[in-house]
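Quick check before the chapter quiz. The format below is the same one you will see on the exam, so make sure you can read both the input and the output lines.
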Amino acid sequence: MVTRKHPRFPVSLSSTLVHKDHFRHAGSLRNLSAKGCLVASIISPFTGMQLTVQLHIPGEPQPILIDNAAVRWSGSAGIGLEFLTVAPLHQDRLDHMIQQLQGKTGLQ
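Here is the expected output.
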């Protein structure tokens, strides 16, 4: 069994995956944690690939930008990403979103 450092929360959010401006592809976030996410997508990036991720939050004009995320696994269940670099403003927004999700689920 895998022990996680950060709880995952089920979500249904749009996202955009970007690789060095070579491709931009829409994805759908299925779960989110403070340090990563699961994205459903038709692409199959290789493990270790580095991506920029935009998390599109309903009602917010700008996405949360994850400057650098690493693909930890990819398969039929989706793409597992670890967040490596997030600018402070976007980190604050991500932290706020995680706090809201914790409040809804009661998980700590």
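If your answer matched, good. The mean pLDDT is 91.
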